Structures are given as structure tokens and as C-alpha cells.
């Protein structure tokens, strides 16, 4: 083989990459030109299916360094000692936007972190908001349908968005955050991140506590005015992606300090607002933030497709010492994310370099499409009499009692208190911007009954809140 020779996918040298084989100078192209056929066929298959949600995003490599000893609360090895460093890969994204959409749309931002720990990969897959619109996975497909394109017109549909929200009052808290200044971050670097759900930490003695994750940006929180965001969407729809890349490329490595709220196990089960309701926050006065460590992003991807597009994150990727809570939305995500990856990237997506753990994998799974690194031994089952690859009792999940009758349950009907509290906490100028944003969006709805239904939710959260929006729309609130 001549050095630097262009080859086919199978390694054979290519003689002409400029001209197809034809029958004579003006003749038709020949099907025997296998190099041409290979190029065209591969080109048609160069993209995996777009993510249903979080399609548009950017990513970066970095490191997480522990700054506080929390081994009293979790036996997770990557958190075991101050100074311990773990490589990470982080992906930021919009939620509803497609691959070609603008970065500066009003939308929550995905905030996903993969920790390549010595005990396997651990993923925190959250958003830049501490809560979400719904609290049960059974509503997720319906919710996302309203955020995507209308199946008939193929246009975004404000009627569907507000119809769903008005019929799902648990969304009010998140809607308030979304329509506030925080709805359009200035950059990915200038926003906080959250695990959103409640998780369970278990220490070496088997003691359990509930935790909430908070990534606090060390760049400070900055947001965009809607007019500036709209202008940027036209001038540079990749504004956030470009900003993150350039910051890291220029040595201005962004960082976030990870904190947790720790809630005693039994205390968490007795809280007035159900701890597992992801539409609600947990008081930081009652359960203050405790520092864990610092995440710094210091290296850009070398290949966007290989490292960002093919990256797969799942809240079901746990390590010993960190477990799921009964949060119903989280429980649904434990299945849905892994299933999405198996469909979108393939059954062996965990073998791709960006997803492959640093820890040794021994799971007896063989074959399947795009499998590489095949095992050669006879043994692909457990238990067996021939090797020492065994289950580890120390890695078993912890136990706690549950009780109740099988049925379809809602957490509670307290949809309004935290949304009202948030509105009253905002400075007056931010309240005015919040109201204007809602008026501009809700004013696009063409059904008065949807507007009235949503107005009543705002009014129940705070009378001034609801009345200001009604005034902006030129409507009366039906009492």
C-alpha cells in the first residue's frame, strides 16, 4: 500500500476519485463503479435519526474535581475524597428545537453530564431549571407533541402549546420560569444546571438520604432580552454553540460548582410538598446547598458527530452509592432514554468511544448491529463454572419499605403556591418583562376559552400576576 493512499472502506486503493466510470466519454455511469456506489450509499446514511427532544446541542470535555468530603452520605467512589478528579463530557441543548433551529429560542436548556468513573459511567441528565412542566412520564409524549410541529400544517402551534398547559396546571411553575428572563440564557456558560429530580444517596453503612443536584455557574447568570435573542436567531442561529466552542478554544474554560441539597430519608417522606414531584422545588433555607466539587470544561470535541451527536446520556446510568427515587417522571425516563439510544444510535451505542466507560465491561452481551471488540470465548452466560465474572453483592441497591394499593394516582393539586411565590420574588421590572412575554405568547392563541383557562391559573397563583396578564391581553378574568 502506498503511504497516504485514498482507499475504499475496505482498504483498497482508489484510482480515481474525480470521475465516475462510464461507458465511453458520454456514456451512462456503470454499476460496476463500486467506489462511487459506496460513497453515495454511505452519504445517505451519514446521519443517525435526530433526537426527538434536545436535538440541537453543543458539547465539551472536561474534568470534575471533588472539593468537599461527602463520603458520610454516599459510597460513590468518584466522590470519595477531596481532590479526586473524574473526566466528564457535558452536552447543552434546547429542548423543542430541531437540529437546524436557533440556539436563542425561548426554551429550557438540557444540561447533561457524563462522569467516566472507575465504577462505570454516571450520568446526570437535567435542565437549566430545577423543575419541569409535568410530573408523570405518561404525559411526556403528549407534552412534546404540543412543542413540535403540527401534524397537519407542519407549523408550530401556539394553540396546542397553551391548550396543553392550561389543561395541565402542574405546568404553571415551569411556565413562569420559562417566560421569565431565565427563559433565554445569554450563553450555555451563563446558566445554572440541575438534576431536577430527587435521587437517593447511600453510604458505606447502608444509610440513605435524598439529594437534589445544583450546578451553579461560576461565570454568573446572564440572560438575553427577547429582541436581542430574535435578532441573533436571524444573524447567527448557532450563537450559543459558537460561544462555547470559542471560549474553550481561547482558554477561557467555563466551570460550574456542583452543590447538593441533602434531605434526611424519613424527613423527605413526610414533607408537605411531595419530594418526588418534579414540578416543585425544595426550600434552600430548610435544606441549604452543600458544595461537592467543581466541573471545568477545557477541551472541545475533535469530531462533532462522533462526540456530540452520538453521545448518549441516561438518568438510568448509576454507580454504587447513587440510586433512583420513586419520582414518577424519573421512573419513566429510566426506560425511555436507554430505549431512545438503542433506536437512534444502536444496540451497541455504549461501545462508541464517547459513551464507552473507563471501567472494564463484562456483561455477556454479544453481537448485534455495529458490534466491535467481539469476545472470543465460549462463556456468554452467568452463573457458570469457568470464570470468575460474578455479581457483586456490595453493588446491590438499597432497600426501603413501600406500601399502597395499585392504582392511578396524582401527587396533589397544589399547582399554584410555588408559582405565586416565584412571581412575588421577582423584582418589579422582571415581573413586567415576564408579563409581557406571556402576553405576547398567549396573545397568539386563537381560542378565548384556552386563554381564559390559562388566565385563571395565573390568577390563582397570584392575583396581581393574573390581572396584569389579563390587562395586557385586554381581557377580563372569568371568576
TrEMBL record:
EC numbers listed for it are 1.11.1.6
Q: What are the start and end residues of every segment in region (Disordered)?
A: 1-23
Q: Locate the Catalase core domain: which residues? A: 7-390
Query: What InterPro entries does the entry give?
Result: Catalase, Catalase_3, Catalase_AS, Catalase_clade1/3, Catalase_core, Catalase_haem_BS, Catalase_immune_responsive, Catalase_sf
Work out whether the entry's keyword set contains Heme: yes
What are the UniProt keywords, alphabetically?
Answer: Heme, Hydrogen peroxide, Iron, Metal-binding, Oxidoreductase, Peroxidase
By sequence similarity, the record places it as follows:
Belongs to the catalase family.
Matches recorded under CDD domains: catalase_clade_3
Asked whether the keyword Oxidoreductase is assigned, the reply is yes
What protein name applies here? Catalase
Q: Which Gene3D superfamilies match?
A: Catalase core domain (2.40.180.10)
- Chemical reaction(s) catalysed: 2 H2O2 = O2 + 2 H2O
Amino acid at each position: 500500500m502506498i503511504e497516504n493512499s485514498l482507499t475504499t472502506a475496505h482498504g483498497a486503493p482508489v484510482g480515481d476519485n474525480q470521475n465516475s466510470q462510464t461507458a465511453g466519454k458520454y456514456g451512462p455511469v456503470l454499476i460496476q463503479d463500486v467506489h462511487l456506489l459506496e460513497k453515495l450509499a454511505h452519504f445517505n446514511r451519514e446521519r443517525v435519526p435526530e433526537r426527538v427532544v434536545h436535538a440541537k446541542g453543543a458539547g465539551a470535555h472536561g474534568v470534575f474535581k471533588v472539593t468537599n468530603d461527602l463520603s458520610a452520605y454516599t459510597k460513590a467512589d468518584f466522590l470519595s475524597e477531596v481532590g479526586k478528579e473524574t473526566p466528564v463530557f457535558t452536552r447543552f441543548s434546547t429542548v423543542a428545537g430541531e437540529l437546524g433551529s436557533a440556539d436563542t429560542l425561548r426554551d429550557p436548556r438540557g444540561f447533561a453530564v457524563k462522569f467516566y468513573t472507575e465504577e462505570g459511567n454516571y450520568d446526570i441528565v437535567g435542565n437549566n431549571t430545577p423543575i419541569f412542566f409535568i410530573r408523570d412520564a405518561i404525559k411526556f409524549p403528549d407534552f412534546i407533541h404540543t412543542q413540535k410541529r403540527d401534524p397537519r400544517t407542519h407549523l408550530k402551534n401556539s394553540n396546542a402549546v397553551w391548550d396543553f398547559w392550561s389543561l395541565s396546571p402542574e405546568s404553571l411553575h415551569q411556565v413562569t420560569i420559562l417566560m421569565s428572563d431565565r427563559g433565554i440564557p445569554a450563553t450555555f456558560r451563563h446558566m445554572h444546571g440541575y438534576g431536577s429530580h430527587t435521587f437517593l444517596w447511600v453510604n458505606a453503612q447502608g444509610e440513605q438520604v435524598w439529594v437534589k443536584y445544583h450546578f451553579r455557574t461560576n461565570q454568573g447568570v446572564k440572560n438575553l432580552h427577547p429582541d436581542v435573542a430574535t435578532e441573533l436567531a436571524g444573524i447567527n442561529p448557532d450563537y450559543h454553540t459558537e460561544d462555547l466552542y470559542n471560549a474553550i478554544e481561547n482558554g477561557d474554560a467555563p466551570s460550574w460548582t456542583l452543590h447538593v441539597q441533602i434531605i434526611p430519608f424519613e424527613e423527605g417522606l413526610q414533607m408537605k410538598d411531595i419530594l418526588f414531584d418534579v414540578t416543585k422545588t425544595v426550600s434552600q433555607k430548610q435544606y441549604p446547598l452543600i458544595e461537592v466539587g467543581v466541573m471545568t470544561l477545557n477541551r472541545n470535541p475533535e469530531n462533532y458527530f462522533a462526540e456530540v451527536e452520538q453521545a448518549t446520556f441516561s438518568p438510568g446510568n448509576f454507580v454504587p452509592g447513587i440510586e433512583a427515587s420513586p419520582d414518577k417522571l424519573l421512573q419513566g425516563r429510566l426506560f425511555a432514554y436507554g430505549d431512545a439510544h438503542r433506536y437512534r444510535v444502536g444496540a451497541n451505542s455504549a461501545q462508541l468511544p464517547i459513551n464507552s466507560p473507563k471501567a472494564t465491561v463484562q456483561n455477556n452481551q454479544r453481537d448485534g448491529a455495529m458490534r466491535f471488540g467481539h469476545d472470543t470465548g465460549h462463556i456468554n452466560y452467568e452463573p457458570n463454572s469457568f470464570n470468575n465474572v460474578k455479581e457483586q453483592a456490595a453493588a446491590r441497591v438499597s432497600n426501603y419499605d413501600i406500601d399502597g394499593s395499585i392504582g392511578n394516582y396524582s401527587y396533589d393539586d397544589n399547582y399554584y403556591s410555588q408559582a405565586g411565590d416565584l412571581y412575588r420574588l421577582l423584582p418589579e421590572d422582571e415581573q413586567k418583562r415576564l408579563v409581557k412575554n406571556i402576553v405576547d405568547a398567549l396573545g397568539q392563541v386563537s381560542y378565548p376559552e384556552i386563554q381564559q383557562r390559562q388566565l385563571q391559573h395565573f390568577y390563582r397563583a397570584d392575583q396581581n400576576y393574573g390581572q396584569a396578564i389579563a390587562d395586557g391581553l385586554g381581557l377580563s378574568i372569568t371568576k
